[in-house]
Amino acid sequence: MSATTLPALSPVKDIATARALGRRRRRMDTLVRWFCLGATAIGLFFLASILLTLLWRGLGSLDWAVFTREFQPTTYGDPDAPKGGLSHAILGSVIQTAIGTLVGTPIGLLVGTYLAEYARGSALGNAVRFVSDVLLSAPSILIGLFVYQLVVLPMGGFSGLAGGLALAIIVIPVVVRTTEDMLQLLPNTLREAVVGLGAPKWKMITLVAYRAALSGMVTGVLLAVARITGETAPLLLTSFGNSVMSWDLGRSMSSLPIAIYQQANSGFPDLIAIAWSGALIVTAGVLAINIVARLVVRPRH
C-alpha cells in the first residue's frame, strides 16, 4: 500500500500569505481601536457637557440660603425680596432616603443570602431570582403606582412614609443582586472548612461569608442609595411634595427631585436658578456616594 503523497508547499507563498494576513489583522485592529476611541470620546463629551452645564448654571445661585431657607414665591422683579431655598426639600430627601434604605437593605440582604446559600439550583430560588431581576428593571413610576394603590389610597392622602416605602422597593432588588453575586464569589472550600470544624451554617454565613463579602455588599447598598436619591416619578405618586419643612411622615413631604421638577417648570428665572442649584446638590451627593463605594472596594495592601 503506497503512502499518500502531499503536495509540496512553497515557502514563498507561505510567507506572503502570512504577511497579508498580518496586514489585514493590523488594519482591523486599528479600525476597531479608533471606533472604541470615538465612542469613548462621544460618551466623555456628553458627560462633560452635563457636568459643566450643572456647574455653570448651579454654582451661580448656590449659596447658604439654598440650604437654610424654605421655598419662597418668585422674587422676580423685586431685588429686595427674600430669596427662597431648598431646606425643606433636602430634609425630605434625607428622611425618605433613610426610610427606603433602612427598610429595603435588610430585606435585600436576607433574600440575597437565601439565593446564594440556601436556594442554589432550586425552583423556588430561580423564581425569586427572576422576580428580583424583573423588579430591578421595572420602571420606577410603576413602583410608585403600586405604592399609591397599596398605601396612599388606604391612608387617605400622600405621605412621606409612602415615598420611603416606594424607595425601599427600588432598593431591594439592587441589594439582592449584589449580595448574591458577592456571596457566590466565595470559594466553596471556605464554607466546607468552617462547617467541617463543627460550626452551624448560620454561623458560617454571619461570621465568615459576610465578613469575606462585606466590601461588595456595602458597595451594593451605597449604589442603591445613589439610585434612589435622584428618583422623581415614584415620589410624585406617593409623597407628592410640599413647600414647607415637614417632619410628619403621615403628610405630604417634599424632596429634592420633586422640588427641582416643580421649580424648573415654573417659568420664573429665579426659581429656575434655584432648581439648577438643587440639581447640582443631587449630582454632588450621588458622586460622593459613588466615591465612597469605590473607596470601600479598593484593595488594601
Automatic annotation (TrEMBL):
Domain of life: Bacteria
Membrane topology: Multi-pass membrane protein
Keyword Ribosomal protein in annotation: no
Pfam families, alphabetized: BPD_transp_1
InterPro entries: MetI-like, MetI-like_sf, Phosphate_PstA, Phosphate_transprt_permease
Protein localization: Cell inner membrane; Cell membrane
Keywords: Cell membrane, Membrane, Phosphate transport, Transmembrane, Transmembrane helix, Transport
Name of the featured protein: Phosphate transport system permease protein PstA
Gene: pstA
